[in-house]
Specification:
It is a single chain. This protein has 262 residues and is of the alpha/beta class. It folds into 2 domains: 5-38; 79-261, Vaccinia Virus protein VP39 (Rossmann fold, 3-Layer(aba) Sandwich), CATH 3.40.50. It has 8 helices and 15 strands. It has helices spanning 18-38, 66-74, 80-89, 107-116, 128-140, 209-213, 216-222, 234-242; strands at 5-8, 13-16, 45-50, 53-58, 97-101, 120-124, 147-150, 153-154, 160-162, 168-170, 186-187, 197-202, 226-229, 247-252, 256-261. Strand 14 and strand 15 form a beta hairpin. InterPro entries: SAM-dependent_MTases_sf. This is FkbM family methyltransferase.
């Protein structure tokens, strides 16, 4: 073991432990990797592996965030247990449609498409900056069912979010999307007119309850399971809304839940 570094000042000697240097070295290595990735002139995609299957997902370096860094540095899905549990509970989507709301990188939709083999996949992502990269991602993953990309916000068609004591906004106009400038179209799951819906994957920032309220007719008539990424009050609000509709709340992975129809 190396001896700790001693720094001498005019008044005292300071001992700097080795673990401080190790932490600093790891931080510098991470920054070097981020810089290399952000400056890499690739077409906005990144290879990710799950269960020995390869996927090209959308990672635009201009929006390089911690979640994206975890994917790019490991080249693996951040929560593999989620998929293991999901595929145990829903072994196939044959003949059914997959609705992926908040597609972002495309990772969850593409992995679910590969392993559960739905008849079609509709990816919904409102951010303008992701459209080109998701388009390239879809083209780079030709194996599987047809994929359609929709640029829209999915909400309940009526609700507004309170921004201050005097200001309210539709979900489609919130700061999450303000980077795009201009208006974003908003619709509901019911208005999409999908038939034979086998699974809804709902992974969006903030409250998910608005999107589910806009799917009430679909949930009653078609009874699709719903995979949800949880944050904030999601668990409480979703249980209160979904249980009267005949759905069971099952925790999956680190931050997810699967709503299964009785």
């Amino acid at each position: 073991m190396k001896a700790p570094l001693h720094a001498v000042t005019d008044t005292e000697e300071i001992v700097i432990p080795d673990d401080h240097f190790d932490r600093a070295r790891r931080l510098l290595d991470r920054l070097d990797q981020q810089i290399a990735l952000m400056s890499n002139p690739v077409a906005g995609t990144c290879a990710v592996f799950h269960e020995d299957e390869a996927f090209e997902i959308a990672l635009p370096w201009a929006a390089f965030e911690n979640y994206q860094f975890k994917i790019a540095s490991r080249h693996a899905a951040p929560d593999p247990m989620l998929y293991t549990q999901l595929f145990d509970l829903i072994p196939s989507l044959a003949g059914k449609a997959l609705l992926d709301i908040g597609a972002f990188t495309g990772l969850q939709g593409l992995i679910t498409r590969r392993f559960l083999e739905p008849s079609q996949l509709l990816m919904v992502e409102p951010q303008a900056m992701m459209q080109k990269h998701l388009g390239r991602t879809i083209a780079a993953n030709p194996e599987g069912c047809p994929v359609t990309l929709l640029k829209a916000v999915i909400d309940d068609g009526t609700s507004v979010m309170q921004k201050s004591a005097t200001r309210h906004e539709r979900l489609a106009d919130t700061s999450y999307l303000r980077r795009d400038s201009g208006k974003i179209s908003a619709t509901t799951i019911d208005a999409l007119g999908l038939t034979d819906l086998g699974l809804i994957n709902l992974d969006i920032p903030g409250a998910k309850i608005y999107s589910l309220k806009g799917a009430e007719a679909t949930l009653r008539d078609q009874r699709p399971p719903v995979l949800v990424n949880l944050s904030g009050r999601d668990a409480t609000e979703i249980k209160e809304f979904m249980e009267p509709l005949g759905y069971e709340f099952v925790r999956l992975g680190n931050h997810g839940a699967l709503l299964l129809p009785h």
